[in-house]
């Protein structure tokens, strides 16, 4: 949930920077916003998701 909220916020920041600023200010804001998006995209999944997937994998193996 945090990841999705952060992605939406960074996209909004980049859009607002594109519309409201010019020049170097715009470039710096967009650089940080898109750098944050890339960092979130390359980050590990949430620990809760990993545990949830592991639990389902263990459960599916027990069915056989």
Nutshell version of this structure?
The chain is mainly α. It has helices at residues 2-20, 23-42, 47-62.
Descriptive notes:
The protein is rod-shaped. It is 86% helix and 0% strand. By secondary structure, the chain is mostly helical. The model has no long low-confidence stretch (mean pLDDT 79).
Distance N terminus to C terminus?
Answer: 33 Å
- The H-and-E topology, N to C, reads as HHH
How many strand segments? 0
Radius of gyration over C-alpha positions, nearest whole angstrom? 18 Å
Mean pLDDT: 79
Strand content: under 5%
Largest sheet: none
How much helicity do the residues have?
over 70%
Tally of alpha and pi helices: 3
Summing up helix and strand content along with how strands pair, one would put the structural category as: mainly alpha
Q: How does the overall form come out from the CA principal axes?
A: rod-shaped
Low-confidence region ranges: none
């Amino acid at each position: 949930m945090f990841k999705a909220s952060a992605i939406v916020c960074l996209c909004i920041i980049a859009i607002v920077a594109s519309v409201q600023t010019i020049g170097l200010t715009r470039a710096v804001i967009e650089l940080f916003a898109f750098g944050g998006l890339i960092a979130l995209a390359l980050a590990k999944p949430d620990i809760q998701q990993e545990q949830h997937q592991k639990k389902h994998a263990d459960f599916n193996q027990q069915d056989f």
